[in-house]
Amino acid sequence: MEDYLKRADELARRFAERAAEYDRTAAFPKEDVDDLRAEGFLGLLVPEPLGGAGAGFRDYVGVAMALARGSPATALLYNMHAAVTGGLAGIPEALALALGAPATFFEVRDRILRAAAEGSMYGVAITEPEAGSRLSAMRTTYEPSDGGFRIRGFKSVTSGAGYLDAYLVAARAAESGGEDPVVSYFLVPASDGLMVEETWDPLGMRATISNGLHLDVHVSADALIGGVEGLVLPLAYTMPQWLVASYAAVYVGVGQGALEEAVRYLSERVVAGSRGG
Length: 277
Hints:
The chain is α+β, with helices and mostly antiparallel strands and 277 residues long. It is 44% helix and 19% strand.
């Protein structure tokens, strides 16, 4: 993984040159993502037999910290992709089978991961107004339809909305409710059934373009992660690192970048004709 860490440092330098303009315009950092794709980083966490680098969480942490020193926004977008690919790749097969996942789940999982290694980029669409990321309070619903599922709802903060190949969406069964609804995850491909609402206008991290995302879309049966409704535990098994701790890696990198910039500024500052005063 030393090669990936070295290349991440090189990419961070490129990202840093573009970061201010992307942040000022709140534009999707396409050049950064193109670099990540060209250098194989979208397949970092994909097992080697599927065309990836076979890296683990520790490897990701080093890469994320390096990328964040160049562009925090791009590193956060990459974190969302890593949460999907790392989470799927890290599900132990024995656990998934014990929880009821059908054998077809592994075929679908491998197809998703192989596509990432080939350049597909994924995001996460979970957060909703008032509910935040609490699965029990989700209002986005799904129901069986034409051999697949119909998903309807609104996600208030979706990083990369409108620019990614697919989104990990949390939704509850339409007929379930109360404090313990049936909640499932779907990997929803980009389509006309997804409509972006431009709600993202923060003071910083503008280039994540975390806009609102309206969903009224039909997906095939194999979009259901785990292959069984309500089977979110396989992803929850890896959630502590991929949907929580992975953010920490990015923000440690942000802190390192801020410190490096402070040192550079103070070293080059000229006071009364004396550099570094």
